[in-house]
Structures are given as structure tokens and as C-alpha cells.
Amino acid sequence: MTEDPTELRILCESLARSAGGIASLGRRAIDDRNRFDAGTKSSTTDVVTEYDEAAERHVVDAIRRLRPGDGIVGEEGTNHIGDTGFAWYIDPIDGTTNFVYGQPAWSCSVAVARQGEMVAGAVYVPPLDEMFSAGTGQGATRDGRSITASGQDDLALALVGTGFGYQPEQRREQAAVVARLIGDVRDIRRLGSAAVDLCMVACGRLDVYYERGLNSWDAAAGELIAREAGAVSSVFDGGPARPVAMVAAARGVHAAFLRLLAAG
Ligand code: IPD
Question: β-pairing, 130-135 with 159-162?
Fold first, then answer.
């Protein structure tokens, strides 16, 4: 079983692309029927479809076949404890609300960590047919070409992405933070997929992304990709990045953005 980051990165890309293939078939079926059937999870607005589940099953089966002892955590309920020191993080469709509505920001995210440190990750964005990936110490790419975070150094001119959780009270609090920040930055975007947001920071299509309350599978690949592209990632108070309070920003605005967040 390979431990080589380059091979693991290639495997992440291939798994993310195949999840994207399954999801794209589902997307076409939804369009043909002109309606979606979705179950709900943590709240009535947190949707899950048969395609999220099929794509996760496909990725999990592949990992179990290729790397039987690795741990696997997936958004749709997979939780295998491994014994190799490697653990996989899968979000088969990040941005399921966009997926069911036919909005373009949804993605398939696969990452692998060794002893808790991310080694490689890939985010495939089927509506754009773009593959983002990174390996630790290898930099980040989009469709094989090197990408870098923006050179923005003026927070007042920074385009900032964010997202909202699924609990009504949490959403109200998150919206209040947006209301406070929006006068101090260029503008705010709510794309609807944390993995896409992080890749947008990685390639300079956003200058900053922040969100409270992500899960490991939402952020695992995207945070590595943003970091390897030269963005700075952290929690809201500047400590090491964790999904619970994620900030990823161009180096020139990261510190100023943390100050703005803290000023509330
Ligand atoms: C959600 C998306 C969204 C973010 C939420 C996530 P899901 O993931 O990434 O942009 O704001 O916090 O839960 O549920 O669509 O996989």
C-alpha cells in the first residue's frame, strides 16, 4: 500500500472524479424529472439524496478494496476506524442544496490524512469540470496547473466568501456577523459549498473564506488546497486551522480579517 503523497493525490483525484460522475448522472435525472426527491438530516433544510449516498458508497468501496486497513469518515454516515495511521475524509456532494436546485457550486471532495496530518486532497467541481488538488509540500493545482491565492493586501477590497449552518439559531448568528462585516470588505459571497469556497481562495477567485461549524469532510481537502496555494488558514482566533471555525485567506489580508472578525 502506497504512502507516497503523489500517488495518494492521484488516488484522491480519481475518487473525487468518479464520485462526480455518479452525482452528474443524478443531476441529469433530476433535470429530466424536473423535481428532486430528498431526505433530510440535521434539520428540515439539510438535504440528502440517493446520489450523495451512491457516490459515497462508491468511494468507500474503492478505498476498502485498495486500502483495506485505512480509516474512513464520510458525510453520509461512513465511519470506519482503521489501523494503518491513514484516514480518508469524503464529502460525496458538498453543496447538496445547490445540487438539487441545479445551482453550479457543488463538488466532490476526497482527502487523506496520515496520523492526523493531511497528506493529499482533491475537490472536483462537476458543473465547472474543474479538478483542484494538492499534496503536502507539493503546491496546489487546478486541472494540473499550479494555482496561487490572490495577492490582495487591502481588506476593504477583499471579496469574502462564507457559509451558513443548518440550524435556524446558528444561521441568525452567522447572518449577524455578515451584516457587521459587509461594510468593511469589497463584498460577500455565499456560494453554497465550503469545499468550492476553499478552492476559490486557492486560485484567487475569493480573497477570504470563513465559516463557523464545518465538519471534517467539508474542509479536509479544500483547506489543504488553499494552504498549499499560499493562503493562510486558521481558526477565528488565529490558532491552527480546524473545521469548527475556519478562515482561509490570502496572506496579505488574513491578519486584518481576523482582527475584523474579533472586533464584533
Ligand atoms: C454544506 C456546504 C455549505 C456550508 C455548510 C455545509 P453540505 O455542506 O458546504 O456551503 O455552508 O456549512 O454543511 O451539507 O452541502 O454537504
Answer: unpaired
